[in-house]
Amino acid sequence: MSPSYVAAIDQGTTSTRCLLFDRQGRMVSVAQRQHRQHYPRPGWVEHDAEEIWRLVCDLVPLALEDAGVTPAEVVALGVTNQRETTVVWDRVTGRPVGPAIVWQDTRTATDLPALTSDFEVAELTRRTGLPLSPYSSGPKLRWILDSDPRLRERAERGELLFGTMDTWLVWKLTGGLHVTDATNASRTLLMDLETLQWDPELLECMQVPAAMLPEIRSSAGVIGHTREPIEGIPISAMLGDQQASLFGQTAFEPGDAKCTFGTGSFLLMNTGPDIVRSRSGLITTVAHATEGEPTVYALEGSIAVAGALVEWCRTSLGLVRSAAEIETLARTVDDNGGCYVVPAFAGLYAPYWESRAQGIIAGLTGYITKGHIARAVLEASAWQAKDVVDAMVVDAQVPMTSLAVDGGMTANNLLMQTLADVLDVPVIRPMMAESVALGAAYAAGLAVGYWPDRRVLKANWHRASEWRSEIADDERDRSHAAWRQAIDLSIAWGRGRP
Ligand SMILES: Nc1ncnc2c1ncn2[C@@H]1O[C@H](COP(=O)(O)OP(=O)(O)O)[C@@H](O)[C@H]1O
Ligand SMILES: O=P(O)(O)OC[C@H](O)CO
């Protein structure tokens, strides 16, 4: 029998990857490239959707070539993506009408209250599981249509199409299929969580013409076949990246959770077929929707800035030359020296949802060195996760007994130890850190029968490292109180500004 593989395209915030996996869930090839980040004004973040498509065109053949795999040996392709990032393009020419507005972008923060004139925010949240926030795609799409009346007219005539990155890429890959999946659609503020359909009242509230919306499909099942950059590969999964990593961590049972530490960090807990409504500032989202099975939902704590803060230290401050160096620098000191960094670059997401909050560095004295700041930078990711875990425990009404982690930042052992210290539960990193791509490949492979069932996938999961708390309760409590004070300052600073 000739070998066969499953491919995944992981279109992330900072880079795009194409990976190939074998039946044991081992990565046999990875091709990866970064794309440009554009910050045209404070709070604005944009990507060039054409640039990202060109990268996909380069990366897919490269991943196959590197592994010596022929297209015929690729039995399925899963597409996973940064969620919420919004693209509008011309149905005929296929050209975007402007830059993609990235999920972190806060340009709509001041318009949000006006969006709900006919609609109670509570009802919006009840239907969608989302807070009214610039994070979602709906406000971004409305902003694009409001920015030029001609665009709105063209959208109403069906000449323009909307999509998140999954939709954009599948449209390009298939030569014109305009679809999304329920996980991505659940991030728009336009889909009803129960019916998994676009909600006409929500569309009216966001002033989005139905003619430009993609069809909402299941997350797994053959959607179509690729025409470019390689012809004939079945696309059999589409999943938002955080839902994909939940799947890749084989978090199939209610109560299973994971946290991915990449540009942002995202803690998701599978809640099974139940739509659990958060009272603590979490999102309710679709974990995956598989044809013929009940929809699986999740509670999510989204944190906008995690690795992005390390990246900012590298590119904007020149504090380190590589992301990994932040650990070396942080290890030059024993503690944070009383310094706290709140990276509210996109306001604060879960569980605070303060779109006007701004970043601060608190506790500066002449004693503070670069090392203390590096430590505070890493601790910010751990404390943000702690606040989300606390909210999750209240909402899900189950204790968190351990936390599975993945993503680029989990290479940082000091951060992983700090995380175990502040959460006071074991933090577990699997052998396969590329859970996002693996999850998309798993969903795609299951859909075409490459893997017979989820049990087999569980057997592929192997623990690589585990960290346990090494600090006393009173030390944790003291530092947590200081962190919460810094959060309050960040919110007050943002609110107090014009
Ligand atoms: N050793 C490290 N320590 C701290 N942060 C790191 C380390 N390695 C990578 N990162 C951060 O992780 C992020 C990249 O992770 P990745 O999972 O590839 O992100 P994404 O999918 O969001 O593009 C970057 O923001 C980078 O700064
Ligand atoms: O691409 P990532 O890993 O930064 O994930 C971004 C999230 O999907 C945004 O919701």
From TrEMBL:
The keyword Kinase applies. Keywords: ATP-binding, Glycerol metabolism, Kinase, Nucleotide-binding, Transferase. Residues 5-248 form the Carbohydrate kinase FGGY N-terminal domain. It comes from Nocardioides mesophilus. GO terms for cellular component: cytosol. This is Glycerol kinase. GO terms for molecular function: ATP binding; glycerol kinase activity. The lineage of its organism: Bacteria, Bacillati, Actinomycetota, Actinomycetes, Propionibacteriales. InterPro entries: ATPase_NBD, Carb_kinase_FGGY, Carb_kinase_FGGY_CS, FGGY_C, FGGY_N, Glycerol_kin.
